[in-house]
Design brief:
The chain has 383 residues and is an alpha+beta fold. It folds into 2 domains: 209 residues, Jelly Rolls; 76 residues, no CATH class. The strands form 4 sheets. Strands 3, 4, 5, 6, 7, 8, 9, 10 and 11 form a 9-stranded antiparallel β-sheet that branches. Strands 13-14-15 form a 3-stranded antiparallel β-sheet. It has a two-stranded antiparallel ribbon with strand order 1-2. A hairpin with an 8-residue loop joins strand 4 and strand 5. Helix 4 packs across helix 6.
Length: 383
């Protein structure tokens, strides 16, 4: 049975509250032996096997070093990879990346639980990278927070400057590689060590010998996506009869001018929809629990509806779940894999925290929801 991991209460000796106050989205933090005696749940051979599968998102990145490390030539091959590709690779300077491994391995999925001191809807996935000596993906930065857990071997991490979209990048490369790097920290991580890297901070990982690294990333929608996606969601529900109105229009001194009154009317229209907290919550919950490409949309070995009255069950850990309190403190909108359900706050808490559920204690409304979820997302509880 897969061990159930609990959220960190401390990172090393540091309380989580201190980390969130002083480090989260502010500055990096190295935690030596955050997971003592940690052993990688997956081997290099198992990762290579995943890259051969059609429904697994993977990349093989190879580097051809030049006189300057900032002028290397890079090549990216997207999976599924041909089985014989590993026979043609050099001894050094390549890296294998596999996305959404938390959806492929129960043991890897458990690693997400360690970071549930961050809201569920912010958690994205666990990516695993394997590299032989000197392998990596070059100096780069991400727009999201990441915890880098060393799983096997060693990896050298150099941390640099804060970056933006205007930071200089290697031209004509198939991936974003920085051409400037101001080293601020230089660490070698061992199994069980974790490095937290905030958004926008340049970082550069290089394998020291054979290395496996687990990257726990977080969803960070851009303002562009928030405005565009939410406005589309709202617009799809607005009746055509709702139109711009100016029934208190006064004579315009200059017919060519857009007046301040017109702008105020437009602001009022937009604010009417933007201030609808229920609409915002429903968009956020559905959007942030949608599965990424390559993620499974059904669990295996789900419980049969007739079994639910006799045994406790839980939401599959492979499902993405969160909730938002409705106007009533006893009811909630429950979001699972991009779908929304209206149920009790007790059910919302149990589902989104993957806790055992007792069918006999559920309301009739909650039972209807559970009937809908049963053969797709609910599993017999093992705790």
């Amino acid at each position: 049975m897969t061990q159930t991991l609990r959220p960190f209460t401390h990172l090393g000796d540091m309380p989580i509250e201190t980390f969130l106050r002083d480090y989260w989205q502010k500055k990096p933090l190295l935690i030596r032996q955050a997971l003592p005696n940690f052993e990688s749940p997956l081997s290099a051979d198992e990762l290579a096997g995943l890259c051969l599968e059609d429904d697994v998102i993977s990349r093989l990145i190879t580097e051809t070093p030049q006189s300057s490390p900032f002028n290397s030539e890079w090549n990216v091959t997207h999976g599924p990879l041909p089985e014989d590709i590993f026979e043609t690779l050099p001894e050094n300077y390549w890296s294998l990346l596999v996305q959404h491994v938390d959806q492929l391995s129960p043991e890897v999925n458990q690693l997400l639980n360690l970071f549930r001191f961050i809201p569920n809807w912010r958690l994205d996935d666990v990516m695993i990278s394997y590299a032989p000596d000197k392998g990596g993906v070059g100096p780069h930065f991400d727009y999201y927070d990441v915890f880098l857990l060393q799983g096997h071997g060693q990896r050298r991490w150099r941390l640099g400057q804060q970056c933006t979209s205007k930071s200089p990048m290697l031209a004509n490369a198939p991936m974003k590689v920085l051409t400037e790097f101001d080293v601020q920290e230089d660490w070698v991580l061992n199994p069980g060590d974790i490095l937290y890297v905030p958004p926008g901070l340049a970082h550069w990982g290089t394998a020291v010998g054979e290395s496996i690294t687990y990257s726990v990333g977080f969803r960070a929608p851009s303002h562009q996506d928030i405005v565009l996606d939410f406005s589309q969601e709202v617009a799809s529900k607005i009746e055509e009869d709702n139109r711009y109105q100016d029934q208190f229009l006064t004579a315009n001194k200059n017919a060519g001018e857009i007046t301040g009154d017109a702008i105020e009317q437009l602001k009022h229209i937009l604010q009417t929809y933007m201030q609808d907290e229920q609409a915002l919550a429903q968009w956020l919950g559905k959007s942030m629990t949608q599965l990424n490409p390559g993620m499974v949309d059904e669990a295996e070995n789900t419980i049969e509806p007739e079994e639910m009255a006799n045994t406790p069950f839980t939401l599959s850990p492979f499902a993405r779940a969160t909730f938002y309190r409705a106007d009533s403190n006893s009811e909630a909108y429950i979001f699972i894999n991009g779908e929304v359900y209206s149920g009790s706050l007790e059910l919302a808490n149990a589902l989104s925290n993957y806790l055992p559920i007792d069918w006999l204690s559920c309301s009739e409304t909650d039972k209807l929801i559970l009937d809908t979820l049963a053969q797709q997302y609910l599993l017999v509880s093992l705790t």
